[in-house]
Amino acid sequence: MLTKAMSAVDEHGVIDNNAARKLLPWYKKLIWHCKHFWQHWLLVLPAMVFVALFAYVPMYGIQLAFRDFVPSKGLTGGKWVGFKYFKQFFTSPMFASTMLNTFKISLGTLILGFIAPIILALLINQIGSTKVKGFVQTITYMPHFISTVVVVAMLNIFLTPDTGLIGKLFGTGTSMLDDPNAIAPIYWISEMWQHCGWNAIIYLAALSSVDLSLYEAAKMDGAGRLQLIRYVDLPTIMPTCVILLIMNMGSVLNVGFEKVWLMQNAMNLPGSEVISTYTFKIGIQSFQFSYGTAIGLFNTVINFAFLIIANWISKRVSETSIF
Amino acid sequence: MTQISGKVASSDRFKSPFSRGQSRQKQQKSLSDRFVDVMIVIAIIAVVVVVLYPLWFIIIASFSDQTKVSSGQVTIWPQGFTLAGYLRVFQDTRIWTGYRNTIIYTVLGTALNLVVTLPAAFALSRVEFKPRRLLLFLFTFTMYFAGGLIPNYLLFKQLGLLNSMWVFILPGAVSVWNLIIARSFFETSIPEDLHDAAQIDGLSLIGYFMRVVIPLSSAIIAVIGLYYFVGHWNDYFTGLIYIRDDSMQPLQNVLQSILLANQTNQMGSGNGGQNVMQQQQIADQIKYGVILVSTLPLLVIYPFLQKYFNKGVMIGAVKG
User: Fold this and answer.
1) Which of A74, A264, B28, B221 has its Cα between 20 and 30 A from that of A39?
2) Domain check: are B53 and B156 in the same one?
3) Which helix (H) or strand (E) holds B117?
4) Membrane-spanning regions, if any (chain B) (predicted)?
């Protein structure tokens, strides 16, 4: 005990406070910690309470997916039934079509939503005048702040056959929104229209950090405009691209509920029923709570798996990762 | 209108004194660069038009005579100027109720968001606070893994949040994304010397946060305040799932039900004469007006906050 205590004293006989503190019994350490850090804890406490209550308690409620729902027991559920509800989902006729629709809608959004902002950022970065640059940025960010309800209303207006801005190009008859095969492309393109400018900001930020001497050096070597983009700009934003791609992979099955829900109608349902809307119909509208939880959990797990895999691959390939 | 930078224009400025071959090469390059320049200008103009025109169209259509809108005469400016749509929108009490509700939810919600998020972000930015790594992990984890819709619904039910205004305010009190952005800001933009000085002057950590950090953080407060504000304002999901009373529905849900009612009007208008046509036109007019009226507040605050965007997102980009 004494030799251990001596380790906190250096050769001059001076006590190292940090080393000495480590020798204290745990409860004294705790008291010391509270005394020094109570203000830090006080500042994070509200956020911790909210996250614990509204994120971790529902996570605890995931067990409902493996239990029969009993109204009196709420979140914790009743009898343990194992994978019954998962099996029910996998064997249901809705499984294949909802999975397919979800993948189709989200994968296209992911790919377009990944590439388009990069191109836009490279384009905007080519503008010399700061005024014009600012103007283009202001314009392209704007749609990001419009609500989903309004965007879908605009889609309805523009795609109205005969009279709509786009609808009249496609002739008469039914609206494109009623076509199950057209729903996914409409979703991708409208998402791109809405968020492309906003998502380009992050690349523009990265591009603003390009070392100007690189341009000079490349020009000396006879690089043209396109080559400057290809060999200077693009490599600069590559790490940012990879990180964003990984983060987007984490939401590969997270098709925005609101938008699909608002776009759905009886006609396009075969192409627009996705996991989140199906969960809502099963769980909330027809009160099959356990079944709904199971579908939701399945969705989360797939997303999480994609995130982990993307992160792992990127760690291997480019040494960039988010954790 | 668009000026492209002179970054590559060097070939015009000095002629190569070395060899003819080289200078010819340079001339060719500048030709192809010119072509690229033109393509870039065209692409940028195209982007601006594609983004802006749909919004502009909604605006001019809302002021136009609907027969002219549906016959395609309205393209650049309003035709047959009228305010009929707006008059009807403003006479609709549902809109006003929705407006009032949304303003209440948005103001209270955003205030709570900031009061909860900023202190937590600050505490998590302090290097000497060792548990911050674990806490940050616990926060970030919720971004990627969540209980899902049904457990949330049941929890809200048990807490008595269903069909209550608090469901708009409490559950979304912390957005982890905004928390991370704010934390990065505190880490990178507030010099640590200030903390030392404040300590010497006898300020506690909370005192330092309130009196030194907050006054220096207007940029980040504006940015995440805007994110939260927009999130509340545009929220349709909460009203759809957790609220049953029409009198408590926020603006977006009111908007949707008005649009939907108009659509069913449209469908039922198959066999009808003048009257149905007129009704249809009124419905269209309302549609445009209501879209604009509900988006107006955002468009009004947008220019004022716009200068902070780049700053804010850049901070988010530097996350650790």
Assistant:
1) B221
2) no
3) helix B93-125
4) 35-59, 103-122, 134-154, 166-186, 206-230, 286-305
| Cβ–Cβ gap B237/A258 under 8 Å | yes
Q: Does B2 touch chain A (CB under 8 A)?
A: yes
Enumerate the residues of chain A whose CB falls inside 8 A of the CB of residue B259.
Answer: 149, 153, 156
Distances (CA, A) of B232 to A55, B108, B250, B298: 19, 10, 10, 11
Give the total number of structural domains in chain B. 2
What are the angstrom distances between the C-alpha of B170 and each of A56, B97, B182, B307?
A: 15, 21, 20, 30
Q: Among A275, A183, A205, which Cα is nearest to B149's?
A: A275
Please state, in angstroms and rounded to a whole number, the distance separating the CA atoms of residues B180 and B135: 12
Amino acid symbol at A164: G
Cβ contact A42–B206 (<8 Å):
yes
pLDDT at B137: 92
Which domain, by its residues, includes B54?
6-62
* Domain contains B73: no
Instruction: Using a CB–CB cutoff of 8 Å, tell me whether B17 touches chain A.
Output: no
Is this prediction's pTM over 0.95?
Answer: no
Residue B317 has pLDDT above 70, yes or no: no
Query: Is the predicted pLDDT of residue B50 greater than 50, yes or no?
Result: yes
How many whole angstroms separate alpha carbon A235 and alpha carbon A116? Answer: 17
Please, what are the domains in chain A?
19-76 (no CATH), 84-318 (1.10.3720.10)
* Mean pLDDT (whole number) for B112-129: 94
ipTM computed for the complex:
0.84
Largest CA distance in chain B: 84
Is B78 among the domain residues?
A: no
Quote the minimal CA–CA distance from A50 to chain B in Å.
7
Domain annotation covers residue B67: no
